[in-house]
Amino acid sequence: MTSKNTLIIGTRGSALALAQADMVRAALSALHPGLDIRREIIRTTGDRRMDVPLADVARVSGIVDKGIFIKELETALLEGRIDVAVHSLKDVPSELAPEFRLPAVLPRAAAEDVLITKEPDWNGRGTLATGSVRRRLMARTYWGRQLRFEDLRGNVPTRLEKLVEHPEWDAVILAKAGLERLGLYAPETVVQGRKLYMRPLPVEAFIPAVGQGIVGMECRASDRKTKELLAGINDVETCACGVAERTFLVRLGASCSTPVGVYACLEGDELVLRAAYYVPGREEPFAVVVCGDRNAPEALGILAFEKLSPN
Ligand SMILES: NCc1[nH]cc(CCC(=O)O)c1CC(=O)O
Question: Where does the record place the Porphobilinogen deaminase C-terminal domain (predicted)?
Answer without folding.
Answer: 241-308
